[in-house]
Amino acid sequence: MATVTAPVAAGARTPERPRRSNPIKQGEGRFGFAMIGLAVLFVTVFTAIPIVASLVLSFFSWDVISPPEFIGMENYRRLLDDGPVLRSFGVTIGMAIAIVVLQLSVGLGLAVLVNARAQVWLRTFFRTAFYLPLLASSASVSIFMGYLFDYKFGVVNYYLGLVGISNVPWLTSGFGAATTIVLITVWQQTGFTFVLFVAALMAVPTDVLEASQIDGAGGWRTFVGIKVPLISPTILFAAVVALINAMQLFDQPYIMTKGGPGTSTTTVTISMYQQGFQNLQFGYGSAIAIILLLLILAITGLQFLAARKLVFYQ
Amino acid sequence: MTGTPFSRRTLLKGGAAGLSLAALGTSAACGSGSGSGSGSKTLKMLYFGEQSQATELQNRLQPEITKLDPGVTFEIAAINGTDWNDFLAKVLTQIAAGTPPDIISVATEGLQLMAQKELAIPLDDYVTKDMANLKEYFADVHPALIESMMYQGHLWELPDSFNAGNMFYDTNLFQAAGLDAPPQDWTIDDFEKAATKIAGTKGVDAYGWVVRLWGSWTSFMYANDANLLEEGKFDGGDWLWNSEAYAGNAAAQGRKGGYQWGAPTANSAGTVEALDYLIQLTKRGLSSSPDVGGGGTLQGRFATGNIGMSIGGGFWAGGLINAGMKKGSFDVTMFPKWKSQRHLFGAGGYAIFKSSKQKDLSWEVLKLLVKPSSFDLVFPGNVTTPGRKSLMTAERYATTGPKNWKVFYDTLTEHPETAPIPAPPYYNAMATALNQRTTQAVSSGDAKAALDGLQADLEKAAAAAGK
């Protein structure tokens, strides 16, 4: 290899010159770096700096009005002893698991069904239809759903009443509120996983599917043994994104239930908002945010570890 | 990398330059923020409401302010929110962002927080200096409202409006149920009898309420002679009560330096009884399940004839009309008597921010804002109750009603035990806990357990606030 490489490297200066002076290539290079630079700047200003600022703030007691006071690890010690905030972590994890499981299974199920349709226009129609809820802002969806699921005058209970079912406390009982919020979130977010899965399923090589058919594999066997392994990288990606979103659930519970009844739908982000912006304990709110960040990182890390055994890269 | 025109060093340089620009942007933003209200010729006021309304008010007041100082531009920034808790959170965020206002309109909910943190300045010196001009103002505004704007003996705001928790009722539903209009001295038993009769109308909730501090189950708590916190009053305030402004004013007798909210009493027998009363009403089908927050849904349901009775203040007069209700289809009476007929109220007014560099001018604007002629500019269409008694006229309520509009101000004059909502400096934490524990109580049906929890929450919040 050395004998081949050395002359090329030694003589590399001569053929490189014309490339350097090529104004089109140079322009492309500048454009590329400008684009990367913008992304780096954006992430630095809007993600990295706030994370560092939050981390620093989490070691202070600060109510916005008085000067910040350094208190070391006190906010973290307090968090370990704060029942309602710890409970909000439990609520968040429970709801996130339900959302991710439902979002992936419903999204995959719908994608398989749509993918089985031969007509392209039908596929396009379903893709658009299932993706539409994702385009609506979650705040407006939450307000709308709050009215739909209202105990007394909600349309859902109205129609249930017509078939003899008494009013369901969708948002006024602890379990009901958590379940309703999970279902609404899944309804809105499934379009994202659905579109990913449709694309992944379409990319499964037909020769592999044909081979499995020749070998006599049925529909279920082909799905479990061929399609799922082949789209497993997409499943991993969808699971990671869905989990990160679900762990940051805020709009739906805040707008529909304000975290109630009691604290049954108080997620970590609501706790963080309440402590920071309502109780004016920005240091403590930041500590909660940092713990949430670490938790999401840890769970995502576990997902990638599990993926080593479960995900099949072609 | 050989084909690229940039070296890694160049990229790093570019990145550093980019970061420097960003940093400069940030510091520039801080710089412009600190400049606001500090020597510039813009007088900034924060207002709870819609920006379109704020801009209209700003345009209407600008000529008056130009008379005070021709070089000043008056700027009102509206802050939207579902309730005062939301408003205060956003105000504090603005302060954190380095853009404090010169003047702020704050209700009872935020007064003590603002005063304790010294965000505003006491108005004592200005009032004393201008007493000759302000005598008619103090004679016109009920002393209870003035006292509610005091903290530790100092006056922090000039109030211009208030809302007491009275009982609104749908006259059509009362008629349909064969009920007479409730008299002002009615009792909790009369209320319950009326609710039972109205509940006979299909699809109607006899009573409706909302989860919040003002005018929620807390009105029942006040009428039951209970409270969430121990009540006391700060010493002081003599500089005002003994001044010429209140000479011979019987309503000013015994007034002190503002409400001093002490240890939590959220699980006292009277408080538990009040919340449990509402839960039992709901269980018996006499009341709807409450929403949390500003009360827009409740007002809408009342306006469409779906609720027989609900707690409202003067702001409901305009609110119900704006929601489409016809004049005459609703009326108001006093809150029913339980152990007492004590009402609660919240007041609104204006304060000067400590960081303002135009305090003297701000004071002049404050006086302008509390003039009788300013009230309808600030609050068009009966969306609150005037703090000045002289503005409580039949003409004011001629287009909106209610017929018994006198009830609004009579609450202060006829029931001197009426007091402001308990809003200590840790109001925000208290409101959050109150909302959570009330929904917990309604959901579980166990008022005592929920209020035991609220008691613990309030004790923690009070301790954190350094009480």
TrEMBL record, chain A:
PROSITE patterns: ABC_TM1. Gene3D superfamilies: MetI-like (1.10.3720.10). The keyword Magnesium does not apply. This is Multiple sugar transport system permease protein. It is found in: Cell membrane. Its main location: membrane. Residues 89-303 form the ABC transmembrane type-1 domain. Keywords: Cell membrane, Membrane, Sugar transport, Transmembrane, Transmembrane helix, Transport. The chain crosses the membrane at residues 31-60, 89-116, 128-148, 168-187, 194-214, 226-246, 282-306. Residues 1-25 are annotated as: Disordered. One of its GO terms (cellular component) is plasma membrane. One of its GO terms (biological process) is transmembrane transport. SUPFAM superfamilies: MetI-like.
UniProtKB/TrEMBL annotation, chain B:
Residues 1-28 form the signal peptide. It comes from the Bacteria. InterPro entries: Bact_solute-bd_prot1 (IPR050490), SBP (IPR006059), TAT_signal (IPR006311). It holds the Pfam family SBP_bac_1. Keywords: Signal. This is ABC-type glycerol-3-phosphate transport system, substrate-binding protein. The lineage of its organism: Bacteria, Bacillati, Actinomycetota, Actinomycetes, Propionibacteriales.
